Amino acid sequence: RYKSVVTPRRAAVAIACCWIVSFLVGLTPMFGWNNLSKMRRTQELNGSHGEFVITCQFETVISMEYMVYFNFFVWVLPPLLLMLLIYLEVFNLIRKQLNKKVSSSSNDPQKYYGKELKIAKSLALVLFLFALSWLPLHVLNCITLFCPSCETPHILTYIAIFLTHGNSAMNPIVYAFRIKKFRTAFLQIWNQYFCCKSAKNAAGSTTAEPEN
């Protein structure tokens, strides 16, 4: 049923919805859910009438209520737990099929479900790296919100933010090393757009040299 359910059009709509939701969630602080009004009130209570200066630090400008209650508890933790349950069910079904060696469209069920298991492991690795990259920042945000007297070193916050950005760079590497189709596609893109350009540049520089 996969080919009948997951059509190219439905896949495109799902991807577009993911991007739209991501933009709305990520840009929410720019719509007003930030610490600007709080900092203005603090300045007024302190009786300071000088120029309003904002210290450009993550925990200073971003609301921890937004990061914890909205971002973490709504858009990160529930999907993460849901994906974990889905992968556990996928692994369970594949192992059952491998143990029963049921018939399938493939001539070799062992080979077919072994391939499916390998792909599932690769996607589970992506999920694990996502959790490893994003949970430290959200844990620090929870500490900041629920324990205001607790002080966390800024270097830990910077490392946690770096991990969240680095997660985007991990996925293509995992796909390239674990899934053959992705690796083949990456090599084709590299050879077509990078190797050809370098070869053309080398050829152009050779023809541009003056003759003796």
Automatic annotation (TrEMBL):
<dbReference type="GO" id="GO:0045202">
    <property type="term" value="C:synapse"/>
</dbReference>
<keyword id="KW-1015">Disulfide bond</keyword>
<feature type="transmembrane region" description="Helical">
    <location>
        <begin position="72"/>
        <end position="94"/>
    </location>
</feature>
<keyword id="KW-1133">Transmembrane helix</keyword>
<dbReference type="InterPro" id="IPR000276">
    <property type="entry name" value="GPCR_Rhodpsn"/>
</dbReference>
<keyword id="KW-0297">G-protein coupled receptor</keyword>
<keyword id="KW-0812">Transmembrane</keyword>
<dbReference type="GO" id="GO:0030425">
    <property type="term" value="C:dendrite"/>
</dbReference>
<comment type="function">
    <text>Receptor for adenosine. The activity of this receptor is mediated by G proteins which inhibit adenylyl cyclase.</text>
</comment>
<feature type="transmembrane region" description="Helical">
    <location>
        <begin position="12"/>
        <end position="33"/>
    </location>
</feature>
<protein>
    <recommendedName>
        <fullName>Adenosine receptor A1</fullName>
    </recommendedName>
</protein>
<feature type="transmembrane region" description="Helical">
    <location>
        <begin position="158"/>
        <end position="177"/>
    </location>
</feature>
<keyword id="KW-1003">Cell membrane</keyword>
<dbReference type="InterPro" id="IPR017452">
    <property type="entry name" value="GPCR_Rhodpsn_7TM"/>
</dbReference>
<keyword id="KW-0675">Receptor</keyword>
<keyword id="KW-0449">Lipoprotein</keyword>
<keyword id="KW-0807">Transducer</keyword>
<keyword id="KW-0325">Glycoprotein</keyword>
<feature type="transmembrane region" description="Helical">
    <location>
        <begin position="123"/>
        <end position="146"/>
    </location>
</feature>
<dbReference type="InterPro" id="IPR001634">
    <property type="entry name" value="Adenosn_rcpt"/>
</dbReference>
<keyword id="KW-0472">Membrane</keyword>
<feature type="domain" description="G-protein coupled receptors family 1 profile">
    <location>
        <begin position="1"/>
        <end position="175"/>
    </location>
</feature>
<comment type="similarity">
    <text>Belongs to the G-protein coupled receptor 1 family.</text>
</comment>
<keyword id="KW-0564">Palmitate</keyword>
<dbReference type="Pfam" id="PF00001">
    <property type="entry name" value="7tm_1"/>
</dbReference>
<dbReference type="GO" id="GO:0001609">
    <property type="term" value="F:G protein-coupled adenosine receptor activity"/>
</dbReference>
<dbReference type="InterPro" id="IPR001068">
    <property type="entry name" value="Adeno_A1_rcpt"/>
</dbReference>
<dbReference type="GO" id="GO:0005886">
    <property type="term" value="C:plasma membrane"/>
</dbReference>
